[in-house]
C-alpha cells in the first residue's frame, strides 16, 4: 500500500505545488483521507518529492535560466530571507502540522486573494517581465514567501500575493514564484536529507520515494503550462473561492469527527 499512497501523494504534489492552493496542505489533507500514520518517513516524503516538481520548473524554464546570471542573483536574494527565517523557526514547525491550522490558512489565503483581485481590478502593473523585477522586490517577495512555513498557506500563493502587492502583473508574479521554488525547495530538501540520511539508505523507502518523485514531475510539467495560460486570461479569484470552499468542507469534517484533525503530522 505504501507505493499506492506514494502515487496518490505524488499526483497531489504535482497538481498543487505551483497552484496557489497549498501543496503541503493538500497532501496533509490527502494523507488524512488515506488514513496514513504521518511518521518521520511520510513527513520527509512530503518534502523530498517536491524535488520532482522543482525539476519540472527547470524543464519548463530551462531557456530562461541559461540566459544569464541576473535571474539567479534575484532568486538568491529572494531565497535569503526565507532561508534565514527557516533556520530559526524550523524546530517549531512540526507543532503547526495540524488539520485545523491547515483549513484556517486555506480560508484566510482565499479571502486575501479575492480582496487583492478586487482592489487591483483593471490596475496597470509596472513590472511585466522577470527582467524588470528589482533586487529589492525579490527580497520582499522572499520575506512574504516565508509565511508559507505555516501549513495551508501555500508557498506559491504567498509569493504570488507578494508579487502582486509589489506591482508585478499576474504572469510575472507566477513565473517568479515558480523559479523561486528552485532554491527554496532544493535547499529545504537537502537540509532534510542531511538531518535524516537514513531516508536514502533504506532500500524500502527508495521505491515509494521514486514513485512520488516521478509522478510529481510529470504532473507538475502539465500544471505549470496550464497555469501560465490560465492567468493570461483569468484572475486568481477562482483559486481564492476554491481555497475557502475546501477549507470550510474540511473544517466540517474535522469538527464533526469524520476525519481526525489531531497533531499527528
TrEMBL record:
The keyword Ubl conjugation does not apply. It comes from the Bacteria. InterPro entries: UppP (IPR003824). It holds the Pfam family BacA. GO terms for biological process: cell wall organization; peptidoglycan biosynthetic process; regulation of cell shape; response to antibiotic. GO terms for cellular component: plasma membrane. Its EC number is 3.6.1.27. Keywords: Antibiotic resistance, Cell membrane, Cell shape, Cell wall biogenesis/degradation, Hydrolase, Membrane, Peptidoglycan synthesis, Transmembrane, Transmembrane helix. It is found in: Cell membrane. It is a multi-pass membrane protein. It is an enzyme of class 3 (hydrolase). It catalyses: di-trans,octa-cis-undecaprenyl diphosphate + H2O = di-trans,octa-cis-undecaprenyl phosphate + phosphate + H(+). The chain crosses the membrane at residues 41-62, 71-90, 96-116, 176-194, 206-228, 235-255. One of its GO terms (molecular function) is undecaprenyl-diphosphatase activity. NCBIfam families: PRK00281.1-2, PRK00281.1-4, undec_PP_bacA. Belongs to the UppP family. Bacitracin is thought to be involved in the inhibition of peptidoglycan synthesis by sequestering undecaprenyl diphosphate, thereby reducing the pool of lipid carrier available. Catalyzes the dephosphorylation of undecaprenyl diphosphate (UPP). Confers resistance to bacitracin. PANTHER family: UNDECAPRENYL-DIPHOSPHATASE. This is Undecaprenyl-diphosphatase. It comes from Campylobacter aviculae. The gene is uppP.
